Amino acid sequence: MSIILPEIEIVDRSINSIRYLEHGWPTDLCRWHAHEEYELHLIVTTRGKVFVGDYIGTFEPGSLFLTGPQLPHNWTTSKSEFDPVTVRDMLIQFTHSGLVQACAAYPEFQELNHMIEASNHGIEFLGFDSAEAMRRLANIRDSTGIKRILLSLDFLHFLSRWPDRKTLSVARINNSSSVKNHSKIANAIEYVVANYTEQLSLSKFAAMAGMSESAFSRYFHAATGNCFTEFVNRVRVGQACIKLYETNDKISSICFGVGFQNIANFNRQFGKIKGKTPSAFRTEARKGLIA
């Protein structure tokens, strides 16, 4: 039974295709939620915890994130360290359908595809100049009509070329790849994500793809950045994270429910990927999401 499902936010898109928002802290807008829109989100001030899908990390002034449709997220300021502030967040929201239509009309916009697809996991742009981000978002805020759209697209295009960024959640998987045998690897990824509770072996997937194990491993690593076993473990741990903060299920039940065969291996892989024990993750997640 879920106890911390994200609140679904409905965004009014009847006026603007690019929606600008800013808010202070504390506010009711700071909550665990999801929506259909992409969101480019800048933290202006304060520090605290960021939650994106199964990812838990930290934010500080200048932290810049991009989240994809229906990817739950929240930013919680450390209450004991900061007084209320007038502006903590500056952000824009835009729709997938708008991008699809733009790409259909102007194929050059497809340069954004790789970043947009990666945002299904959540992206943090590391080392981005906070003053530059604030200037660009303020210009979008102060513009209307076509100018707002052009300024937003220019910012997204600039970010698509930013070299230092981090993918956050493993709960959503990017199936795009420029390597050969893309469709076979994409099918394998989709199968793992949909059937992570099954026994999943490299030999089985190599046979399904009609490749040798060495060839499959090579192509799989090129497509995902992980060897096959590591990828399966990351997907299972990602699903475990969701169950840890959305349910009261016992950790042992979650372990077997996501496909691990024993508690020791589950704890070892969880610690390797998340840097903490499952119980510590649950405590931290509950404290941050409910606060």
What would a concise description of this structure say?
The protein has 291 residues and is an alpha+beta fold. Helices cover 44% and strands 18% of the residues. It has eleven helices and eleven strands.
Mean pLDDT: 86
Beta-strand proportion:
15-25%
Helix content: 40-55%
Give the H and E element order: EEEEEEEEEHHEHHEHHHHHHH
Largest sheet: 6 strands, antiparallel
Q: In total, how many beta strands?
A: 11
Distance between the termini: 20 Å
The unreliable regions are 173-180
Q: How many DSSP helices?
A: 11
Structural class call reads alpha+beta
Overall geometry: globular
Give the strand order, joined by hyphens, for the main sheet: 2-9-4-7-10-11
Radius of gyration: 20 Å
Describe this structure in words.
The protein has 11 helices and 11 strands. Strand 5 and strand 6 form a beta hairpin. It is 44% helix and 18% strand. It is α+β, with helices and mostly antiparallel strands. About 3% of the residues have low confidence.
Attribute tags:
single chain, 291 residues, alpha+beta, 6-stranded antiparallel sheet, 3-stranded antiparallel sheet, 11 helices, 11 strands
Secondary structure elements and pairings:
Blueprint: E1 7-8, E2 19-25, E3 33-34, E4 38-43, E5 48-52, E6 55-59, E7 64-67, E8 73-77, E9 85-94, H1 96-105, H2 113-118, E10 123-125, H3 130-141, H4 145-160, E11 165-167, H5 182-194, H6 202-209, H7 213-224, H8 228-246, H9 251-257, H10 263-274, H11 278-290
Helix pairs in contact: 3-4, 6-7, 8-11
